[in-house]
Design brief:
The chain is an alpha/beta fold. The chain has helices at 17-28, 44-48, 61-75, 98-126, 147-167, 186-198, 204-216, 224-235, 249-258, 261-271, and strands at residues 8-11, 32-37, 52-55, 80-83, 129-134, 172-179, 242-245. It is globular, with a radius of gyration of 19 Å. The N and C termini lie far apart (57 Å).
Length: 273
């Protein structure tokens, strides 16, 4: 494969976990990967594997614009956008300051939406492209302590549905990936946030139970299970709108589908006792 024929992929949040694995897997599949993160020093593994790395903060428009402009200047195309950058803002909704709720939405939703806007003109000109938005099973169901996180992922799901039907006419696919439990830094950060905001006060019981549950989950699979879904979607001639994988993903989505709101709420409350 000649270098100029390599498909070009932009992966956000590639400093660790799933994003890092996505970047490395795409490099192995023959993609020219631009991996981005706020923590540029943590992209060394991607650089060593042959990827190109850029600093990007998905809450900073100039940062996103300059990164996309550089990719287009160097390669003239973007074939794949993987919107992976994100985190979980946990804590009771009464306790989490609205400023932190807004930051959650800026990172998990508006950052992805802005990158889509920046990449779409090139994809339309090419007549093809794939946009993969990393959501969560938490974009289909919600649990206590994660209100802002769930709000951002529910919104990303709806955004992706509208986008998919807008850009299909241009040969562009939009795919949502919904991870369940995956071994990463995510759970630890979410627990810390829940305890920071709600470890004392009216919601301390829920915050501490959430923390205990995260510590008890020791069998989360590695990020490969989600990277496999990304590769599957990229290789599919007609990819599905959604793929899910990871610990408890299938059973939880099934229960959310078959149970009434009342019964699902009862199940969640029992788990949080």
């Amino acid at each position: 494969m000649r270098p100029q024929q390599q498909p070009v992929a932009l992966v956000t949040g590639a400093s660790s976990g799933m994003g890092k694995d996505f970047a490395l897997r795409l490099i192995a599949e023959g993609y020219l990967v631009y991996a981005t993160a706020r923590r540029f020093d943590r992209l060394e593994a991607v650089r060593a594997a042959g990827g190109r790395t850029l600093t990007m903060d998905v809450t900073d428009d100039d940062s996103m614009s300059s990164a996309v402009e550089r990719i287009l200047a160097e390669q003239g195309r973007i074939d794949v956008l993987i919107n992976n950058a994100g985190y979980g803002q946990y804590g009771a909704l009464e306790d989490v300051p609205l400023a932190e709720g807004r930051r959650q939405m800026e990172t998990n939703l508006f950052g992805a939406a802005r990158l889509v806007q920046l990449c779409l003109p090139a994809m339309r000109a090419q007549g093809r492209g794939k946009i993969i938005n990393i959501s969560s099973i938490g974009g289909k169901l919600a649990s206590p302590m994660g209100g802002w996180y769930h709000a951002s992922k529910f919104a990303l799901e709806g955004y992706s549905d509208a986008l998919r039907n807008e850009v299909a006419q241009f040969g562009i696919d939009v795919v949502v990936i919904e991870p369940g439990g995956v071994a990463s830094e995510w759970a630890g950060i979410a627990s810390e946030e829940a305890l920071r905001h709600s470890g004392t006060g009216a919601y301390a019981g829920l915050a501490n139970k959430f923390n205990d549950l995260q510590k008890q989950i020791t069998n989360n699979p590695g990020p490969k299970v989600i990277s496999d879904l990304v590769i599957k979607a990229l290789k599919a001639k007609r990819p599905k709108a959604r793929y899910h994988g990871g610990f408890l993903a299938a059973p939880m989505l099934f229960l959310r589908y078959v149970l009434s709101d009342r019964l699902f709420d009862r199940m969640i409350r029992m788990a949080m006792r």
